[in-house]
């Protein structure tokens, strides 16, 4: 609990880090901050072309089906694989000055999260232009699922970033793990394809991201409120991983300065 | 430091205030890897590479610091004092024991560690102060003070990468001391920056100390520590070897260094390698050869046992009056006869700029000593420095200019002046006003 109070005192540092990261992200590029919006649009263009001409899918407006789930996934995967290096990359600070080390993963995940929020403006625009109806009641659930995903990503990033300090290969292993994880999460397909395979289905629901992605898709694609079970599973997983993240990070951070 | 009363001894006064730093039974070990590999391949394939030796750097250090105290940590390289400071600052954690700290801590350990080169000085103030746990509002309130103290003026809006190292240090120092910390931890940073700014920093630190800030300093600069701190803690070999009032701890420590030096002069045991504090400071006499960068060095063939200033009446003093004669008695002892003993003295400004220095050879005076123990007196007819504090150095060298006993900054002395000109030294002068004699001559 002490750490939460301390982190609150250090909020300016977190804000500073997030701002610096967002500002610095597209620095020196001609279009600058516009890339935050252009990038997802171009991605969408590619998916539309590929899935409407080359790899035709049965799902109606497949590019949208994919897009509303892919953006949250990208946030999640960059957080855990990119965020794994967030302590190491600040080693000069960690070895020289005191600050609550939790600031580093929190800043990293928050900055990726803000980036996703901005991208979601594009998602909204596309969903509306594509003529899908947005259900206002369902939309009320959107912030909830976003926050749940944020804490899930934060918890896991805290674990990966702390472990990477002791074991540098983890950063590279994680990029493979997140790739595999992406295929094990119903992003490019619907969970219904697992109907009739109860064992596989069980495994899928252990994956915390399954509930999160289903909830996103319910809200943005199907225009319906997510099931309470989906939502509470996701929230429960988010809570468990956040607590785990803080505990593991808190334990491992004590020897950061020596290991770096 | 015989014969001089030093400022800053409010040791007894603070003895009743609350304890703000409490370290008890601090143990810390480092792993010294023979050949470290932290990647998977190395961990699996070269299992032996992960062999390491555990080295205990601190073996049960206790320290209590009360509010408003200034404590100096002394010790030779690798004794663990910097590690101890890092434990106090919570950069590292002890393996055994506990550190309890009450209040906001600011560290002057690595100045400017959080600076971002592409951001302007002003933006860096915000990020850097945020690292000390300040909110935007708190930083806004201190911004003007920080910029003013840094003397950066208009440069404050330029990117930090364009700064000179001096400007960089000034900005970093300004932030670190303006965060309203309750406790300040300082590691050997007073040696950076130009002399004027260094002096300004010291003055600021004195001010902060007066305002009740608790300060812990690690330094090899015994002079600064002695004038600044109330209490000394000498750490040797991972334990507290001596603690108490600063001057007594320093003199014990000096004696120890002296004894070490004598030992080293003889064929000596291999000095233990100290991997945890590499090349931190060459001052502390780990080398057998003479280290001329320290404040006190020499072969010890002849030694200065004491030096005292005497005023025109022959009374011992540290405060001299301008325009009056004074003398300095240098008490010596010859340990190894057969060398010529050339005495030398020098006076410096507070920032260590040399004002005047000379020795018996330069002055071409006889140097033969009548006995193995005695006094050599340096006499000045007219003290002509302006008011202020100055530093005195004294030395004995031999005919080949080998330093036998050399004190840089032996002590500080003060001059009281009736002259109001500014600078260091008084010029006897007069003014005259007259008409120009021939018009237009200056054009030729």
Explain what this protein looks like in three dimensions.
The complex is a heterodimer of chains A (260) and B (444). Chain A is mainly alpha-helical and 260 residues long. Chain A has one domain (2-259). Chain A contains 12 helices and no strands. Chain A has helices at residues 2-9, 11-25, 35-54, 62-82, 91-94, 103-129, 136-166, 170-183, 198-206, 208-220, 228-252, 256-259. Chain B is an alpha/beta fold. Among the domains of chain B are: 13-103 and 182-252, Rossmann fold; 298-416, abc- transporter (atp binding component) like domain (Coagulation Factor XIII, Chain A, domain 1), CATH 2.70.50. Chain B has a 6-stranded mixed beta sheet, with helices on both faces. In chain B, strands 10, 13, 15, 16, 18 and 19 form a 6-stranded mixed beta sheet that branches. In chain B, strands 12-11-14-17 form a 4-stranded antiparallel beta sheet, with no helix packed on it. Chain B is globular and about 75 Å long. Classes of the chains: A mainly alpha (260), B alpha/beta (444). Chains A and B meet through α2, α5 and α12 of A and α1 and α3 of B.
Give a concise summary.
Chain A has one domain. Chain A contains 12 helices and no strands. The model of chain A has no long low-confidence stretch (mean pLDDT 88).
Supply database-style keywords.
heterodimer; A: 260 residues; mainly alpha; 12 helices; 73% helix; globular; B: 444 residues; alpha/beta; Rossmann fold; Coagulation Factor XIII, Chain A, domain 1; six-stranded mixed sheet; 8 helices; 19 strands; 22% helix; 31% strand; disordered N terminus
Summarize the topology.
The complex is a heterodimer of chains A (260) and B (444).
Chain A: H1 2-9, H2 11-25, H3 35-54, H4 62-82, H5 91-94, H6 103-129, H7 136-166, H8 170-183, H9 198-206, H10 208-220, H11 228-252, H12 256-259
Helix pairs in contact in A: 2-6, 3-4, 3-6, 4-6, 4-7, 4-8, 4-10, 6-7, 7-10, 7-11, 10-11
Chain B: E1 19-33, H1 40-45, E2 52-66, E3 70-74, H2 81-88, E4 96-101, E5 105-108, H3 121-131, H4 136-150, H5 165-177, E6 183-187, H6 195-210, E7 214-218, H7 222-228, E8 231-236, E9 239-245, H8 246-265, E10 296-297, E11 302-310, E12 316-317, E13 319-321, E14 326-334, E15 342-348, E16 354-359, E17 373-380, E18 388-397, E19 403-416
Parallel strand pairs in B: 3-7, 3-8, 5-6, 6-7, 13-19
Antiparallel strand pairs in B: 1-2, 1-4, 8-9, 10-19, 11-12, 11-14, 14-17, 15-16, 15-18, 18-19
């Amino acid at each position: 609990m002490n750490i939460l109070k301390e982190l609150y005192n250090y909020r300016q540092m977190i804000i500073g880090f997030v701002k610096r990261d967002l500002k610095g992200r597209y620095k020196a590029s001609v279009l600058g901050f516009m890339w935050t919006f252009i990038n997802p649009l171009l991605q969408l263009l590619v998916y539309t072309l590929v899935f409407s001409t080359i790899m035709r899918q049965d799902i109606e407006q497949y590019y949208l089906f994919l897009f509303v789930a892919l953006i949250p996934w990208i946030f999640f995967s960059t957080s855990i694989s990119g965020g794994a290096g967030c302590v190491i990359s600040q080693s000069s600070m960690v070895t020289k000055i005191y600050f609550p080390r939790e600031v580093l993963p929190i800043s990293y995940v928050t900055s990726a999260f803000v980036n996703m929020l901005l991208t979601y403006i594009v998602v909204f625009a596309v969903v509306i232009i594509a003529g899908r109806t947005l259900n206002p009641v369902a939309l009320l659930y959107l912030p909830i699922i976003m926050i749940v995903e944020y804490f899930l990503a934060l918890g896991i990033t805290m674990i990966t970033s702390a472990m990477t300090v002791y074991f540098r290969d983890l950063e590279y292993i994680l990029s493979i793990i997140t790739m595999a994880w992406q295929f094990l999460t119903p992003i490019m397909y619907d969970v219904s394809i697992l109907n009739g395979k109860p064992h596989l289905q069980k495994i899928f629901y252990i994956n915390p991201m399954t509930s999160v992605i289903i909830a996103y898709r319910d809200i943005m694609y199907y225009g319906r409120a997510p099931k309470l079970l989906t939502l509470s599973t996701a929230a429960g997983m988010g809570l468990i991983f956040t607590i785990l993240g803080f505990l593991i990070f808190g334990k491992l951070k004590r020897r950061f300065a020596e290991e770096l | 430091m015989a014969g001089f009363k030093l400022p800053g001894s409010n040791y007894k006064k603070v003895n009743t205030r609350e304890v703000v730093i409490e370290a008890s039974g601090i143990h810390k070990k480092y792993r010294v890897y023979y050949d470290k590999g932290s990647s998977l391949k190395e961990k699996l394939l070269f299992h032996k590479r992960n062999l390491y030796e555990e080295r205990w750097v601190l073996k049960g250090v206790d320290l209590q610091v009360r509010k408003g105290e200034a404590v100096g940590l002394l010790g030779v390289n690798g004794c663990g004092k910097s590690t101890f400071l890092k434990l106090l600052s919570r950069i590292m954690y002890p393996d055994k024991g506990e550190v309890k700290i009450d209040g906001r801590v600011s560290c002057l350990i690595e100045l400017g560690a959080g600076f971002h080169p592409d951001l302007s000085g002003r933006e860096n103030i915000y990020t850097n102060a945020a690292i000390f746990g300040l909110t935007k509002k708190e930083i806004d309130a201190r911004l003007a003070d920080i910029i003013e103290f840094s003397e950066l003026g208009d440069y404050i809006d330029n990117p930090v990468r364009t700064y000179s190292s001096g400007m960089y240090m000034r900005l970093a120092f300004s932030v670190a001391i303006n965060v309203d910390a309750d406790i300040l931890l300082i590691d050997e940073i007073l040696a950076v920056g130009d002399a004027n700014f260094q002096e300004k920093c010291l003055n600021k630190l004195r001010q902060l100390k007066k305002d009740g800030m608790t300060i812990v300093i690690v330094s090899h600069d015994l002079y600064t520590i002695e004038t600044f701190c109330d209490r000394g803690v000498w750490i040797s070999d991972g334990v507290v070897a001596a603690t108490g009032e600063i001057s007594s701890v320093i003199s014990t420590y000096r004696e120890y260094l002296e004894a070490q030096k004598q030992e080293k002069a003889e064929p000596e045991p291999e000095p233990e390698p100290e991997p945890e504090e590499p090349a931190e400071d060459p001052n502390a006499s780990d080398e057998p050869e003479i280290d001329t960068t320290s404040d006190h060095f020499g072969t010890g063939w002849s030694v200065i046992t004491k030096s005292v200033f005497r005023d025109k009446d022959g009374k011992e003093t540290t405060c001299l009056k301008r325009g009056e004669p004074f003398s300095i008695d240098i008490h010596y002892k010859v340990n190894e006869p057969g060398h010529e003993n050339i005495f030398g003295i020098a006076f410096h400004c507070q920032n260590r700029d040399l004002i005047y220095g000379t020795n018996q050879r330069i002055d071409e005076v006889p140097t033969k000593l009548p006995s193995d123990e005695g006094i050599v007196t340096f006499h000045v007819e007219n003290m002509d420095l302006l008011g202020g504090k100055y530093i005195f150095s004294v030395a004995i060298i031999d005919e080949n200019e080998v330093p036998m006993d050399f004190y840089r900054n032996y002590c500080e002395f003060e001059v009281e002046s009736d002259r109001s000109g500014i600078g260091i030294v008084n010029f006897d002068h007069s003014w005259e006003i007259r008409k120009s004699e021939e018009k237009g001559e200056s054009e030729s």
